[in-house]
Amino acid sequence: MSRTYVGMPAFPRAAARAVDDAVLRANLRRATHTIRDRRAAAVAELADWAQLRTAAAAIKDRTLRHLDHYLLRLEENVTRAGGTVHWAADADEANRIVTRLVRDTGEREVVKVKSMTTQETGLNAALEEAGIRAYETDLAELVVQLGDDLPSHLLVPAIHRNRAEIRELFRDRMGAWGRPAPEGLTDRPAELAEAARLHLREKFLRAKVAVSGANFMVAETGTLVVVESEGNGRMCLTLPETLISVVGIEKTVPAWRDLEVFLQLLPRSSTAERMNPYTTMWTGTTDGDGPSAFHLVLLDNGRSDALADVTGRQTLRCIRCSACLNVCPVYERAGGHAYGSPYPGPIGAVLTPQLRGTASPLEQSLPFASSLCGACYEVCPVAIDIPEVLLHLRERVVEGGEATVRGVRTVVRPARRRALEGAAARAAGLVLDHPAALRRAQRLLYRTRGLHPRRLPGPGRAWSAARDLPPVPEESFRDWWARTRGDGAGRGGTA
Amino acid sequence: MTGRPHDPARERVLARIRRALADVPRHERPGDHPVPRAYALTHGERTAAERVALLAAHLEDYRATVHRAGAAELPELLTGLLRRRGARRVVVPAGVPPEWLAGVGAGAGVEMVPDTPGLTTGELDRVDSVVTGCALAVAETGTLVLDGGPGQGRRRITLVPDHHVCVVRVPSQVVDSVPQALGRLDPLRPLTWISGPSATSDIELDRVEGVHGPRTLEVVLLDEAAP
């Protein structure tokens, strides 16, 4: 079975579970703190980091403001180079296209490169229904698949598992999926990597079809770029006969030259490396080298809705580096699963409600899953002002207003009072037991007061009500709600 | 490209995007939105020797092994690297100068496997080592770029074998930076950027070398100035 995100509880309930899990918290803390310091050192090597960041944001903005133009150029150039371009308005369309393409090859299995996008569409489950087995080949995705689990981090989907847990999974589950783990496997990372190498090699060598995502698509040349570490990406992108890449429309950049900005920002932000071990760039198909058939599936699935929101649009600059997760005090305590989508952490808290709309409790609660400390904005290599978008989405949830949902301009009604109070009070309150983080949050609340939407329901007050900490001098959420909407009735909780 | 068949999904996505961009002024052309490129095209001024030294240092940082040789010493060096590895079968793409591997051959008990379309992945998996050149190398990031040109072969031959020996002509093939590298590369060729041996950060976000690609990467800096 492939697990999906359907029916995930709202953030506060899911986070409460994670906060109670001492092993999970320790795993996350160790991993995120390790990468945090190394990232800072890698960034400090480039004196022009700020200029690169400014250029990256501007390149993405240019693309987004003329996305139709660049997508058509991309389509033209991919087609000219021998690829076939497909368009999918939503997840089901994308899954149907991929399923049909795999069926047309006559194959019953595919190898996959780690792809957020196909996690988002639930592709593995759709393929499974069609009798097609999808093998994840990224080490962490393999851990997730063997454990019948869900990803909890953009870069390292199994960050919630420590080496001892990974060893157990390999020992107990690899045999059911193919070559079993070697006898006497220990939890040394090098041995675990070796076990993955042996387990997956036979699959790579016989694979006829691969499914990937992409980090960038260059409109002017039709080139796709996959940035990776292990070599599983190269295996999938070069050995099979058919390659199907499912890519969000926002991954487009206008020009070849633009890669000079992103290839400097992404590895340092993501894995704190000057450059990641492997990057593959391909343009259509090449005679005698690599797949002879290449299909590109361009996925919307809510991205055009985010595009329609002038404040939210900047979210689509995201290059999925995961730096914002690694510095986030809420993510560190709540874990990735609490965010209920393949996009966890601060970026998920702003992206998911925009891709899916804010009609249900999970999406309504996500904009409140933040202390507004601003660390995510500081580290973001494409300068997404995540606190600004969070506040904007909070306003939409609380007050309602205009939004585009599946391409249709809609008036969103304010969230139900009970659901909302639960979200605001508990999202941050449960996960923040760190006085310094709260103090930073309060300072930022103060500093950014000008950015706050009219009549923000002070979530800071809600945290201080749940914690023995200096209160933020603002009206409580409950008082505010009673005064402005006012039936004054009882205690809130998640609906 | 002419008249593509009507695709309702394509029309729907494009229509949504155009509606979403109603706030963008009609007269704004794609190039009008400014992109300030105040970033550096290289990070520091270097002599050729400094550039090569930086490349070597950065390659070693990510656990590639770096060797230096002049043209006269190269055959002996390559023979030694393959012997030390215990390589019995070595894949060699077309365009590798024959003199590079003059010391390796049937006499030394090493089988040279040409990179032909008939070479299956299974056969490639039984190859011990691969020797190639490259298109260029990037000093600031410690990166080798292969573009399928002469002496580089198909992408798979530098992927499946566990031991990759890559020869870089220095200083002519070494650039300072990523922007310089992109300016010299042809996007229509299949490109592989390699920075150290295969690695993963997937176990507790700590880098471990050696997953699916070659676990040993040896780089030979071939000094063009030396005899």
TrEMBL record, chain A:
One of its GO terms (biological process) is lactate metabolic process. Residues 393-483 form the Lactate utilization protein B C-terminal domain. Pfam families: Fer4_8, LUD_dom, LutB_C. Residues 316-384 form the 4Fe-4S ferredoxin-type domain. InterPro entries: 4Fe4S_Fe-S-bd, 4Fe4S_Fe_S_CS, FTHF_cligase-like_sf, Helical_ferredxn, LUD_dom, LutB/LldF, LutB_C, NagB/RpiA_transferase-like. GO terms for molecular function: 4 iron, 4 sulfur cluster binding; metal ion binding. The keyword Methyltransferase does not apply. It comes from the Bacteria. Keywords: 4Fe-4S, Electron transport, Iron, Iron-sulfur, Metal-binding, Repeat, Transport. PROSITE patterns: 4FE4S_FER_1. Residues 73-285 form the LUD domain. This is Iron-sulfur cluster-binding protein.
